[in-house]
Amino acid sequence: MDGVSVLQIKKIFFFISILFFSIINLSLFYVIYYKSVNSYITGYMFFKSFKTNSLNRRWVSLKETSPVVTKSVIAAEDQRFYSHYGFDVKEIRAAIIHNRLNNNKRGASTISQQVAKNVFLFSNRSWLRKILEAYYTVLIEHYWGKDRILEVYLNIAETGFGIYGVEGASLYYFKKTNQKLTYYQAASIIASLPNPIIYSANKYNDFLNERRWRIINKLNIF
User: Fold this and answer.
1) DSSP string spanning 29-47?
2) Are residues 6 and 100 in the same domain?
3) Are residues 123 and 80 in the same domain?
4) DSSP assignment, residue 219?
């Protein structure tokens, strides 16, 4: 009886080990695959399209992206993007202190974390998703590098109702490619990123206007 029980435990352990390493290998495969293959549609885009009935996006490489746009997004979303390793410890500490003292919560997700979540995961809030997000963040930081992460972010970030990426937003809101955007227009698109459904890039809003000018002022340090 004891011998059978031990054998069963060994079989279960073996099965779990195989399953674990299969999942690890599969995740590595997808990360390496998307290092060179553009993710034209993510799981988030796919499921969101059922609500919006539209999917407006156009992929552009980082070389085709205006420096005004890249500087604006770093100034607004992740000022230490090129110096951290996927997690901004200073921003995490600041967010913890802020959230303890204030009712309006703020996050500390880096561009890398947002890419990991949007490409490989879903937007549900859970500890499991946070753990997986951290795992994929480490992987893309190692295998992709900063420029690729930034390129993907600028193409998959939600920038409006059924609109994704800076190029899609540029064409929709301002009828021009991102390379022809002014500082004001680029900052308007990036300023709307916290909630692009509510804060449209081409409409006036006090919150959006404050963020817009904050971004423009920060551009002087880049």
Assistant:
1) HHHHHHHHS--SS-HHHHH
2) no
3) yes
4) G
H-type alpha helices, 62-143:
67-77, 89-101, 111-120, 127-143
Structure tokens given for 182: 């002014």
210 with 129, same domain: the answer is yes
Percentage of the chain surpassing pLDDT 70? 96
List, for residues 170-203, the tens digit of each pLDDT value: 999 999 999 999 988 999 899 888 788 887 887 7
Average confidence (pLDDT) over 25-40 = 88
The answer to whether the beta carbons of residues 35 and 141 sit under 8 Å apart is no
> Is the overall model pTM greater than 0.70, yes or no?
yes
Count of domains for the chain: 2
Give the C-alpha separation, 205 to 95, whole Å.
25
Determine contact, residues 145/133, Cβ cutoff 8 Å.
no
160 shares its domain with 70 = yes
Tell me: do 26 and 58 sit in the same domain. no
**Do residue 92 and residue 134 come from a single domain?**
yes
112, 166: one domain: yes
Distance CA 31, CA 184 (A): 35
pLDDT, tens digit, 9 for 90 and up, residues 81-118: 999 999 988 888 888 887 888 777 777 789 999 999 98
- Report the distance separating Cα 154 and Cα 60, nearest Å: 9
Is-contact 178 170, C-beta < 8 A? yes
Are 67 and 152 found together in one domain? Answer: yes
- Is 16's pLDDT higher than 80? yes
Amino acid at 182: T
Question: From CA 210, how far away is CA 187, in angstroms rounded?
Answer: 11
Domain that holds residue 107: 38-221
